[in-house]
Amino acid sequence: MLGSLRSIVQEVNSARDLPAVLEIIVRRVREVMHTRVCSVYLRDKESGNYVLMATDGLRPSAVGQVHLAPGEGLVGNVVTREEPINLEKAEAHPAFQYFPSTGEERFSAFLGTPIIHHRIVLGVLVVQQEEQRRFDEGEEAFLVTLSAQLAGVIAHAEATGTLATIRRQRQETHFSGIAASPGIAIGRAHIVTPRANLATVPYSLCLDIEAELVLFRQALTSAREEIREVGERLKCELNREERALFDAYISMLDDNSLAVEVCDRIEQQLSAPRAWAEVMLEHVRRFEAMSDSYFRDRAADVRDLGARVLTHLHQQQQSERDYSENTILVGEELTAAVLAEVPREKLIGAVSVKGSSNSHMAIIARAMGLPAIMGVQDLPYETIHGVDMVVDGYRGDLHIHPGAELKRRYDEIVEEEQQLAHSFDHLADLPAETADGHRVRLLVNTGLMADVARSLERGAEGVGLFRTEVPFLLRDRFPSEEEQREIYREQLEAFAPLPVTMRTLDVGGDKALAYFPIEETNPFLGWRGIRVTLDHPEIFLAQVRAMMKASLGFSNLRIMLPMISGLNELEAARKLIERAYRELLEEGYEIEMPPLGVMVEVPSAIYLIRELAERADFISVGSNDLTQYLLAVDRNNSRVANIYHALHPAVLRALQEIVNTAHAEGTKVGICGELAGEPGGALLLVAMGYDMLSMNATNLPRVKATLRAVRQADSKLLLQQALKMSCPVEIEKIVKSYLKKAGLKVTLQP
Q1: pLDDT higher for 18 or 157?
Q2: How far apart are CA 616 and CA 570, in angstroms?
Q3: 86 CB contacts (<8 Å, ≥6 apart)?
Q4: Backbone CA torsion sign across 134, 138, 140, 142
Q5: Which positions are annotated as active-site residues?
Q6: Half-sphere exposure of residue 240, counting CA atoms within 13 Å on the CB side?
Q7: Which SS3 state, helix, strand or coil, does residue 608 take?
Q8: Contact at 8 Å (CB) between 17 and 43?
Q9: Phi/psi at 636 (nearest 5 deg)?
């Protein structure tokens, strides 16, 4: 039945709307399983009842008329049990309920399977037969498998149909994605679609090859100029390295790379548009076929470039786009270049159907302070141009046509954020200490020059994590030692004499370099972090030499090693750093050997803390990755995002174990991750004894206000209570309750 299964799914995927999807399902399942009846019941969101929406075998007049509550009738029992019900004599079952309008009194055999999407029973798929027989295991397995495959298709089709109704009746609805950049945006959707479709360029030949080559080169020149203009619009927002993304776009259009392939095809008499489309689509397919999310994000960039040049090849008239005052960009795959095309004063948010929180678009959105959501997979974005919406970049929630009450609540959050930001201004020059005098250092996580001014304005006491991979990600080659030195020098000088902790190159997992491919079945458990750079000492040595050369005259550099899982990695890295230091001294650089620290992100490191603390100058916990590995959850995967919880008791107990053991060896411990930037999380970490908390600059004032308002002794009592609990939701509740009782409700994340 595997062939039939694939055939049905393919047909359903190509259906135009929900009624067509359901018609295909009931017709094809009845044919394949040779049953007399196939029906689909779907959940009505308003009533919660399950309604007969399509049937092949029962009376058509019953469609839309039969309603069953969860637990009511056989269908309702399938819903509550969330598993198949297979009966040879349905009428004998205690839950059987007869509906005369259906004409089902002739049918005895009954098999119903739930259609479940993201833990919600969307509906029930039912087959029936006249003779009294139990459907065999193969038939039941087929229907279960089909229901599981159809769940996502039905959810998407429902969403599309719902939005069609919403456009007419302006009903409120909600979609979920991945929070990519924090903040709230209330505005109007502006749908971004490719200006020219590479896939629809017809096959055509040219008569004048030279004229076609001239046309192609003119199109490349126009595209380069267009991209340069886009880059210039971001000049005030981003530094040279961030703008290098647009330089990378331009370099892809260089005559010695893609252009050569296209010119070769034109010289074989292929038209310029067709030659360009063929070459670009080949590159797009190569990127899309790769398992790594970073490479898939690059496919969007290549497609965007292809559409730009194709637009010029077709000599299409470029018209000014009409952007509203509160524009929220929405598209299937937003790119950084598309983001930059909107006048900054009009752009307030972004939503992408595909992508992750590590794409170039997400990186630049965070640098611009632009609320953004990625991975809103069920959103039929083509249908919502011009509609009102709310982007909740804190939780990854998208609200279409927000009702008056919902909009009022989000308006209050926006106003509260603005007032809160002003109310915290006076804290910038005050120390981060608890009401009973316990001092903690608050630092920032950064990777962009755009973060520097904001960090210093808000009272950052240094950098707890400088992500050195960002300049590598925004280039099409490894930056040279001198280029790296200039980048690092900017950071060290901006924060001097405050410490700047630079993490050595951390690529792999979901952060791969296009020019340094890492192809693995399971990249998160593979070649990443320190493993990559130790295997390539030439990369590691160039980077640490650049860091130490950049520190000349400042002496505020600290070097941190990512993804340490064993002592051998620390020792190997130390030997290379000491070698680079000796070389620089021999070259005449009057510099100091920087402190060397390790990041605790891998569970094995938890059980090596004593040995690591003896050998390292400091320890910093990467709570995001540590949580991800402890719970075996990819936090960028919306399907399991609800399992990822920084307040999970296993995570809290591990964090306490780390700091206790390190302090016993006299080694200071910091933490850089989302937990440190949450007021409640910061309270627990301070109670544990963490010496330094590093966070996003946006969250720093909120955390400082919280710490200054409570006593460490009280936070320790809160921690003791939390460590006894076994459920993260319960822990979150008691932490929020504590903050409210302490008069700190305003510091909670909206």
Answers
A1: 18
A2: 8
A3: 110, 111, 134, 135, 140
A4: negative
A5: 360, 672
A6: 7
A7: coil
A8: no
A9: -90, 0
Can you read off the two tokens belonging to residue 483? 């280029």
Helices vs strands, H then E, count in the chain = 26, 22
Alpha helices in 360-449 (DSSP H): 360-368, 404-423
In Å, what is the CA distance from 503 to each residue of 70, 175, 561, 564, 605?
Answer: 53, 36, 6, 12, 17
The answer to whether 74 and 97 have CB atoms below 8 angstroms apart is yes
**pTM as predicted:** 0.67
The whole-angstrom separation of Cα 606 and Cα 604 is: 5
- List CB contacts of 707: < 8 A, sequence separation 6 or more: 432, 433, 434, 440, 682, 683, 686
CA distances from 603 to 599, 607, 628, 629 (A): 11, 8, 10, 7
Torsion, Cα of 81, 87, 92, 94 (10° steps): 0
**433 CA to centre of own chain:** 34
**Per-residue pLDDT reduced to its tens digit, 154-182:** 887 776 665 445 445 567 888 888 888 88
Question: How many alpha carbons fall within 13 Å on the CB side of residue 242?
Answer: 27
Strand partners, 400: 173, 389
Q: How many CB atoms lie within 10 A of CB 19?
A: 13
How many other C-beta atoms can be found within 10 angstroms of the C-beta atom of residue 349?
Answer: 27
Which of 45-59, 144-158, 506-520 has the highest average model confidence (pLDDT)? 45-59
pLDDT for residue 748 is more than 90: no
For residue 620, the SS3 value is strand
Phi and psi, residue 453, nearest 5°: -60, -45
User: 219, 272 in Cβ contact below 8 A?
Assistant: yes
Please state the rounded mean pLDDT for residues 127-140. 92
What pLDDT score does 469 carry? 85
Q: How far apart are CA 480 and CA 468, in angstroms?
A: 13
* 89 DSSP β-pair partners: none
Q: What sign has the CA pseudo-torsion 212, 213, 214, 216?
A: positive
The CA distance from 345 to 187, in Å, is 13
In the numeric block, the tokens 């304005």 are attached to 457
DSSP E strands in 130-226: the ranges are: 173-176, 178-181, 184-192
Q: What is the DSSP letter of 529?
A: T
* Token representation of residue 685: 């970490």
Give the pLDDT confidence of 568-627 residue by residue, as tens digits: 999 999 999 999 999 999 999 999 999 999 999 999 999 999 999 999 999 999 998 899
Nearest to 702 by CA among 747, 738, 736, 740: 747
**266/261 Cα distance (integer angstroms):** 9
SS3 readout for 325-358 = CCEEEEECCCCHHHHHHCCCCCEEEEEECCCCCC
Q: Rounded to whole angstroms, how far apart are CA atoms 709 and 711?
A: 7
d(CA 273, CA 262): 9
What single letter denotes the amino acid at residue 51? V
